[in-house]
Amino acid sequence: MPASKVYFTDFRCRNGVSQLDKLRKLLEKSEFSQIDFDGKFVAIKLHFGELGNLSFLRANYAKVVADFIKERGGRPFITDCNTLYVGSRKNALEHMDTAYLNGYSPFSTGCHVIIADGLKGSDDIEVPVAGGEYCKTARIGRAVMDADIVISLAHFKGHEEAGFGGALKNIGMGCGSRAGKMEMHSSGKPNVHPELCISCGECRKNCAHDTISFVDYTGENRPGSRAERKNAKKRAFIDHNKCVGCGRCIGACPEDAVKAGTDEANDILNYKIAEYTYAVIHGRPNFHISLVIDVSPYCDCHAENDIPIVPDIGMFASFDPVALDQACADAVNRQPVIEGSVLSEKEHCHHDHFTDTHPDTNWESCLEHAVKMGMGSREYELIEIK
């Protein structure tokens, strides 16, 4: 496969030229302007950031992309799917509250926020994955699949399981519904933590496969909890032989007592992310923008952010998400380590900043599998936009 074009501009700003101006110029000079947006619904997939985290991308960048699309007749919306874990984005109401509190509103971005997999993370579409080795189908948020065009606007940073989070993870993991995220992270079967369960029955009400029963529990009640109410000696139990891994029980539980497993090896997680990305972008226009700024060692899903591991670098864009992730990783690995960061405390034996930060990860496995799936090339031509 020939080398893909990756466009780049740094963050240096002279008088009268802002970073937003430079992003707009990047879009104008790159192949982004070749997409026919007229009359099309355009999903701009990004991460709104967890409450408490301050390293996520500012909404100003999203507005530049949305305005560019609207000027060409497109109908953009900003989107993400609900999370699998407990936090401020586990259902659509809290997710939208978080988006607004973190600066993403129709007033600041010029387009609406839509949570792609609905109120409780169950509004998804099962999409075939042609050639998938680990996922024959992918559970993708419905609004993402309803869009005519998909744009990834990613904050490039470290990740404790994937190695780093870039375009592939932003789309693959980010567009998966709750059931999809569970499939990627585990064999797809949730478990009940009995010490948190209050036997309210909400999980059973939302189960369409009669997998949940209530069994005797001899453990101590959580002090001061509602577990001291009725059925205090019973706890929910999920029969994995019947469970289909839809994740509805996770969203229904008012006590966050139902949790997904995390039993997949990191390489398999990366393979599944690649296959989910394929399900999202295959057969329709897509483009990818990554900002290598505030390169924190962990995902923006954390309710906090550590200091960056390397200096800010710039903005990258490409039709090829594989080449884009490779170019961003190469750029990070050429940077000096910031003193006082978590990376400065690590042993530098891998010649790779991400693997040194998280030695149990292998980010290359995701890119290798994406190449195998035909999504792009790790070879690229870097075109700098001055």
Describe, in plain words, how this protein is organized in 3D.
This protein is α/β, with parallel strands linked by helices. The chain folds into two domains: 4-177 and 266-380, Rossmann fold (3-Layer(aba) Sandwich); 190-260, 2-Layer Sandwich (Alpha-Beta Plaits). It contains 13 helices and 16 strands. The protein has an eight-stranded mixed beta sheet with strand order 4-3-2-7-14-15-1-16, with helices on both faces. A two-stranded antiparallel ribbon has the order 5-6. A hairpin with a 3-residue loop joins strand 8 (157-159) and strand 9. Helix 10 (266-281) crosses helix 13. The relative contact order is 0.19. The mean pLDDT is 92.
Task: Name the CATH homologous superfamily of the largest domain.
Answer: LarA, N-terminal domain
Secondary structure: helix percent: 25-40%
Morphology call: globular
The total beta strand count reads: 16
Major sheet strand order: 4-3-2-7-14-15-1-16
Order of helices and strands: EHEHEHHEEEHEEEHHEHEEHEHEEHHHE
Secondary structure tally, helices: 13
- In the predicted model, the low-confidence regions spanning at least 5 consecutive residues are none
CATH-level-2 architecture of the largest domain: 3-Layer(aba) Sandwich
Say what oligomer this is. Answer: single chain
Q: Which fold name corresponds to the CATH topology of the largest domain?
A: Rossmann fold
**Could you report the average pLDDT, rounded to the nearest whole number?**
92
Strand content: 15-25%
N/C terminus separation: 28 Å
What does the radius of gyration come to? 21 Å
Helix/strand structural class: alpha/beta
> What is the C-level CATH assignment of the largest domain?
Alpha Beta
Largest sheet: 8 strands, mixed
Work out the count of structural domains: 2
